[in-house]
Amino acid sequence: MADAHTPVLVVDDLRTHFELPIGMVKAVDGVSFELERGKTLGVVGESGSGKTVLSRTIMGLNIASNARTSGSVVYDGRELVGLTPGEMRQLWGTEMAMVFQDPMTSLNPVVKVGRQLTEHMRAHLGTSKQEAKASAIELLRSVRIPEPEERFNNFPHEMSGGMRQRVCIAVALACGPKVLFADEPTTALDVTVQHQILNLLAQQQRERYMTMILVTHDLGVVAGRADEIMVMYAGKAVEKASTSTLFSAMRHPYTEALFRSIPKTGNPKHTRLTAIAGRPPDLIHPPPGCKFAPRCPYAQERCREEEPELQAAPEPGHSFACHYPVGSEAGKAAYEANLAAGVPQTLAAAGQVQATEDLSVVAAAAEEVV
Amino acid sequence: MSETFDTPDVQRAESTATQAVIEPPAAEPASTTKPGEKPRRARPHEIFRDMPLLVKISAVWLILVVFGAIYAKLDQSVFGGALPLQDPNLQTNNFNSETGDFGTGEPLESPSTSHWLGTDALARDTFSRILHGGWVSLIVAGTAAGFGVIVGGLLGSLVGFVRGRTENVIMSLIDVILAFPALILLLALVSIFEVRSLALISIVIGVLSIPAYTRVSRAISLAISQREFVLAARAIGTKPRTILFREIIPNVLPTVLAYALVAAAFVVVVEGSLSFLGLSVQLPQSTWGNMINQARRDIRLNIAQVFWPSLALSLTVLALNQVGDFFQRRFAVRDSAL
Predict the structure, then answer these.
(1) Chain B residue with the nearest C-alpha to that of A59
(2) What is the pLDDT of residues A203-226, one digit of tens each?
(3) Interface contact B32-A160, CB threshold 8 A
(4) I need a labelling partner for A370 at 20 to 30 A (CA). Which of A64, A291, B89, B156 fits?
(5) Contacts of residue A156 in chain B, CB cutoff 8 Å?
(6) Does this model's pTM top 0.80?
């Protein structure tokens, strides 16, 4: 792959549905994207928007027997959908690896970290015990674990959360993967450690020229680190753009709502954090039109009936799925009409109710709508 | 004034105040902040120290029973009766034709210095018979635990991890065995054989204790298999067999071992019941159950001969339960902390 611009990962119309007795859960419902070597894709969305299932589907890690996957994932010219777990195992570790959300549970509590690191190195790469130990210690040093020789013999419970996540990253990097999935790698950590771990991931990605998919619910996490951002809602990509485009010209009301819910340091004290009213939709019986319509301050009658398709924005590489996009004339008109009509989620977004009513009233009203 | 007597450390610190000031606090703030320390696992004496008094007494009792049983067996098999312990099958009231002596004892004696717990209806030393009976219980309980942990633990860990059809087939078989009343199945199996050796009894009880272990270890394995570290192991391309042996089984084992102690108590009772019915190891080998059965006939003459083996049996069962519960609690706490 001499050409750096050839996408290393092409995902086309990927769907993962889970068959349950009460119906089909459409956890990932037609997601497409391309990713070039060495780039970072940020996947952003609320809990339950399908971002974790998406990354596990791409890696082929959905173990549930009721999962139905369709669509296509092409990695480095190879189709991955439909491969058996045995065939996928050739790729796991050496081509693709994953860093998980909770470092407290993603290390085996009864095995020393050193052995967790060296074991699969020896199995995959056939290195000797001494070599594996030496490279494991080197790896621990590269993820900035102090005194790696001593830490090599520690059990996971003897380490702090941040240190365990560093070990998890070291485990994921041990066999030199080309694509790294980071599934909310910092959600379980406190803010100062979050920053260090994200910097570490970015640094390792640069040094190893890895492609990275960074899954998070926090737009702030991906802001400075991802090359491209995909916003997911109810199993679908609702907006895709390069990071700078997304922050300067966001089109989808959901992206805007996520953006508003980041606390800003410039705000005066005791400013209420803007929350998105309501809850993500039921993925078994989703609303007929736009999935975000029941919570959207811009929603019109058309949104509840007709599902918007992903359409291109004027900026290159930017696409979104909305009838009344943010920043357009139609969007502005829709918002003002809703505001005048007193639609609860619009009032909440505009901040008008906070002065007079308790926010829970709005939340209750919005839930009725959902 | 009185504070200085709190701990020896305080006294020492005061007497050498000049150098003690800069000493770091004795207690480490958290293990996580201290690198370079050897990985610490609770040592046996630390576990013992943590036990409540009743559990401590139970543990001591179990050690005594095991030691006594091994001592008795050594005396019989290796030293040929040379160690200071009465022959369990010598009828001490017998006339010895070689020496012309009448026996030294008589049936249903009360405790004395020569017969610590007295003698039974055939004038055999009860203390020695209880020690030898302990050997039978030890072997049966040990074999059952071995079968249970190795076969049951492995099967349970496997089906909890692979799920699917394998699980359905194996668990159905296990349920069929479980559905059958265990004691009746035991009676049927044991009565087939003409010679009931200790090995036979142990193996039959061992095989019948596999299902319970399978269910216990399957339950733990199901929970462990859902944990993220198993997924993480898959995501770096670990083979399923390696995951089973390296990730699942080490986590299943502590709980299964703790269960083995509680299950052993049950096995001791089962063996006692079989013995009482005369269907365990053949006479004259003494077991706690057959001692109770034999002494039962003379209960009006000497109740103590029923009492001693019953006491040994109940104390052992109680002690096994206490120690088993202690370890189960200990592992439960450790699991929840992770």
Answers:
(1) B235
(2) 889 888 999 999 988 888 888 888
(3) yes
(4) A64
(5) 338
(6) no
Interface residue ranges in chain B relative to chain A, Cβ cutoff 8 Å: 31-33, 35-39, 163-164, 227-229, 231-239, 242, 246-247, 250-251, 254, 337-338
What CA–CA distance (Å, rounded) separates B111 from B131?
Answer: 16
**Probe site for chain B from A55, A106, A173 (most B CB atoms < 10 A):** A106
Contacting residues for A340 by C-beta, under 8 A, at least 6 apart: none
Query: Is the domain of A259 the same as that of A346?
Result: yes
What CATH number does domain B51-76+114-337 carry, 1.10.1240.10, 3.40.250.10, 2.70.50.60, 1.10.3720.10? 1.10.3720.10
Domain total for chain A?
A: 2
A 10 A CB-CB count for B37 gives 12
Q: Which residues from B are below 8 Å from A124, CB to CB? A: 237
What does the pLDDT look like over B179-192, one tens digit per residue?
Answer: 888 778 888 887 88
Residue A343, domain extent: 255-263+289-370
The interface predicted TM-score of the complex, written ipTM, equals: 0.72
SS3 A240: strand
| Nearest in space to B318 (alpha carbons), one of B330, B310, B307 | B310
- The residue among A341, A350, A345 whose CA lies nearest residue A363 is A345
- B233 CB neighbours in chain A (<8 A) are 108, 120
